[in-house]
Write a structure and sequence with these properties.
Layout lengths: L2 E5 L5 E5 L1 H12 L52 E6 L9 H4 L2 E3 L6 E3 L13 H18 L3 E4 L11 H10 L4 E8 L9 E5 L10 H19 L12 E4 L3 H4 L5 E8 L3 H7 L2 H19 L3
Parallel strand pairs: 3-6, 3-7, 7-10, 8-9
Antiparallel strand pairs: 1-2, 4-5, 8-10
Helix pairs in contact: 3-8, 5-8
């Protein structure tokens, strides 16, 4: 897609999807039945610019310095009526708060409970998942806000504890989000490579109304992330990069379309090299933003 640029927080350049390109995306997506990928590619126009087309770097802080809830202001743009919740998995203070994160909280039907949160994984070189999740989430936030979306982050920094899995779901529900994505990186076997997208299976009284739209969201993210990042589809779990789950509180308690994106396997050397590369993360943020935009412009 062609792109316009404007100064972003901290002096970075925000890459905005052009109105013309998103109009084309809208026409293509609306002509496609839910659950099916648009013919060819919904982003048939040239893609968002890569890292070499603008400034890139490590995120300094959440754009705009928002407080709890990180409710980013909507602006003018093709996504100005859309609300997106981005959930950076885990948190930097979890390891020092084992009592808190091991407390059981609601996770689904029949009184199901699970631990509040977990510490997450890390690469062999020591890049923590919680740090990676935070940095990539902020990059995605920047791109969506540049197109006018209201973006809510479930945590406001990488130094806190939690939120718990039920609280993360509640943030999306309270925001009445059009889409929610929880960003993670897996800690699979060292021999396994690739990404996968987790979407909720139908549970009566819980996810029955969001299961279908969440599957469509998963398909849009899977397509754009796979095409845009060169990260292969997971070869050690899931079904061609899709995993339907009914045991995750963050999905079971959601009332809005929601998925988990496991961006790669931190325990695999090749995946870890990509996940650790700041330029690759810029490209990944472009791809995730395109996937979310494709879903949001379907209606």
């Amino acid at each position: 897609m062609s792109a316009s640029t404007e100064p972003g927080p901290g002096g970075r350049t925000l890459r905005a999807l052009s109105l013309t390109a998103l109009a084309a995306l809208l026409c293509t997506s609306c002509a496609t039945p839910p659950g099916e990928a648009p013919a060819d590619d919904p982003t048939a126009a040239p893609p968002l610019p890569g890292p070499d087309d603008g400034q890139s770097g490590e995120p300094d802080e959440a754009p705009g310095g928002q407080d709890d809830g990180q409710d980013g202001p909507a602006g003018d743009g093709p996504l100005d009526s859309r609300v997106v919740v981005i959930d950076p998995g885990h948190n930097g203070g979890n390891a020092e708060a084992s009592d808190r994160i091991n407390e059981n909280v609601p996770a689904g039907p029949d009184g199901e409970e699970k631990a509040c949160d977990t510490v997450g994984t890390e690469t062999a070189d020591g890049l923590s998942e919680h740090e990676f999740n935070w940095e990539l989430s902020v990059l995605v936030q920047e791109r969506l806000e540049a197109d006018g979306a209201t973006v809510v982050l479930t945590r406001d920094d990488n130094d806190g504890v939690g939120p718990c899995i039920d609280e993360r779901a509640e943030i999306g529900n309270d925001a009445e989000a059009d889409a929610a994505v929880s960003i993670h990186a897996d800690g699979g076997p060292e021999s396994g490579r690739g990404f996968h997208v987790i979407h909720p299976g139908p549970i009566d009284g819980y996810t029955d109304e969001i299961a279908e739209p969440s599957e469509v969201l998963a398909e849009d993210l899977h397509r754009e992330y796979g095409d845009g990042t060169d990260m292969p589809v997971a070869d050690y779990l899931a079904d061609d990069g899709f995993d339907e789950r009914t045991d995750l509180g963050g999905l079971n308690l959601s009332t809005v379309p929601k998925v988990f994106l496991e961006t790669g396997n931190m325990r695999n050397g090749e995946d870890a090299e990509m996940l650790s590369d700041p330029e690759w993360r810029e490209t990944a943020a472009d791809a995730i933003a395109r996937g979310l935009a494709a879903y949001l412009m379907r209606s």
